Every structure is written in structure tokens, then in C-alpha cells.
Amino acid sequence: MRAPEDCHSMEDLRAMIDALDAKIVGLMAQRAGYIDRAAEIKTDVGLPARIDSRVEEVVRNVRVRAMAEGLDPALIETLWRILIDWSIAREEEVLGPDAPQEGTE
């Protein structure tokens, strides 16, 4: 990977962006594997897909990371809330939408 300042044409920039996009998609696929495993474990221990305290913890974590990286934390929060909602929907395919709520806080 070249640094942005080492890209001297739009073709160079586009190639680096495309390479990063491929890595991001790969990381998202890896994250989905962990989500699938979480659904299995939650089934065993009786947890629901959505645990609001964990959702907010994840959002806080990515906002802090965004600020440390010089990114807009509001934008990152918006993107992550979409990712979290997708992840919960994926878990609900295994757990069902009416999973138990006790012991989640």
C-alpha cells in the first residue's frame, strides 16, 4: 500500500482505494463470522440478539477510535449503528426476534 501522498494520479488513488475496500469487505466478512459464533453462544446461554448495553459500548468504542484516527465520530457512529443493526438481524435468524431479555443488562 502506498501512502496517499505517494499517489500521483487518479489511477494510483483509485487502485489504493479499491485495495482498501477489498480489505474492509474481508474484515466485515470476518466480523460476520464472529457474529455467527455469538449467535451460537447466545443460544446456549439464553441471551437475546440485542443487548442494548453492549450496543452502546460498541458505539462508544468506535467513537473514541474515530476521534483518535481523526475521523468524524458522528459519521462513524452512524455507520456502526447500521452495522450493528445488520449484525443483530443476522443473529435473530438463529435466535428469533423474541429471545429472552432477562440478564442482559
TrEMBL record:
<dbReference type="Pfam" id="PF01817">
    <property type="entry name" value="CM_2"/>
</dbReference>
<feature type="binding site">
    <location>
        <position position="42"/>
    </location>
    <ligand>
        <name>substrate</name>
    </ligand>
</feature>
<dbReference type="InterPro" id="IPR036979">
    <property type="entry name" value="CM_dom_sf"/>
</dbReference>
<keyword id="KW-0413">Isomerase</keyword>
<feature type="binding site">
    <location>
        <position position="91"/>
    </location>
    <ligand>
        <name>substrate</name>
    </ligand>
</feature>
<feature type="binding site">
    <location>
        <position position="14"/>
    </location>
    <ligand>
        <name>substrate</name>
    </ligand>
</feature>
<protein>
    <recommendedName>
        <fullName>chorismate mutase</fullName>
        <ecNumber>5.4.99.5</ecNumber>
    </recommendedName>
</protein>
<dbReference type="InterPro" id="IPR036263">
    <property type="entry name" value="Chorismate_II_sf"/>
</dbReference>
<dbReference type="InterPro" id="IPR008241">
    <property type="entry name" value="Isochorismate_pyruvate-lyase"/>
</dbReference>
<dbReference type="InterPro" id="IPR002701">
    <property type="entry name" value="CM_II_prokaryot"/>
</dbReference>
<dbReference type="GO" id="GO:0016835">
    <property type="term" value="F:carbon-oxygen lyase activity"/>
</dbReference>
<dbReference type="GO" id="GO:0004106">
    <property type="term" value="F:chorismate mutase activity"/>
</dbReference>
<feature type="domain" description="Chorismate mutase">
    <location>
        <begin position="4"/>
        <end position="95"/>
    </location>
</feature>
<feature type="binding site">
    <location>
        <position position="31"/>
    </location>
    <ligand>
        <name>substrate</name>
    </ligand>
</feature>
<dbReference type="InterPro" id="IPR051331">
    <property type="entry name" value="Chorismate_mutase-related"/>
</dbReference>
<dbReference type="GO" id="GO:0046417">
    <property type="term" value="P:chorismate metabolic process"/>
</dbReference>
<dbReference type="GO" id="GO:0009697">
    <property type="term" value="P:salicylic acid biosynthetic process"/>
</dbReference>
